[in-house]
Design brief:
Blueprint: H1 47-64, H2 73-97, H3 103-125, H4 130-153, H5 162-172
The structure holds zinc ion (ZN).
Length: about 180
């Protein structure tokens, strides 16, 4: 049987200047609100440190959510916000329009909403202003309305494959990559 090893908590780790050769044992980012890097006694509240911590948070979120890595992490997070918002808006309309309760659709809708909250939180933690996050969300909803309008006019909006198709196509948009 494998022994359970305690994962070492992340620490500040700055070198102490008392000549002891030890490093600071405060939790990482202690007193800075970032939860990472050096503590507030060791420069954690400087602007440079905060920017670095936010960039790290964005990079981590990009990895967690499998977002494109070839673009700026903050942009990738904002893209995921509008993409997810669009998908949620699409699913919400779909659920409203379907007469029978569709469990698969509801499950998808719920999991997308959970994802949305997480991605928004990751974006805020990465230092992206709430105003920009809200704007990205708004864009996603608009895109979903356009897609839905077209599919409805063609009479295919309620096809079972459509929700997954919409997600796929939203993912394919590169969000104005330069
Ligand atoms: Zn420290």
């Amino acid at each position: 049987m494998k022994k359970k090893r305690k994962r070492p908590a992340k620490l500040c780790g700055a070198n102490l200047v008392d000549g002891s050769g030890r490093t600071c044992g405060q939790p990482a980012g202690w007193g800075t609100g970032t939860g990472r890097g050096v503590c507030r006694k060791h420069g954690g509240n400087t602007r440079a440190h905060k920017v670095k911590a936010q960039r790290e948070a964005a990079k981590e979120a990009v990895a967690v959510y499998g977002l494109p890595i070839e673009i700026d992490p903050a942009d990738a997070l904002l893209q995921e916000v509008w993409r997810t918002a669009g998908h949620i808006a699409f699913l919400a309309a779909e659920i409203q329009n379907t007469e029978r309760a569709n469990l698969a659709l509801l499950r998808l809708y719920q999991s997308e909403r959970v994802h949305m909250v997480r991605v928004c939180m990751a974006a805020i933690r990465a230092g992206i202003e709430e105003r920009r996050v809200a704007l990205a969300e708004h864009h996603g909803v608009m895109i979903a309305q356009v897609i839905r309008g077209i599919l409805e006019e063609k009479g295919i909006a309620d096809d079972a494959d459509v929700p997954a198709m919409v997600r796929r196509h939203l993912t394919a948009i590169d969000g104005g990559k330069k």
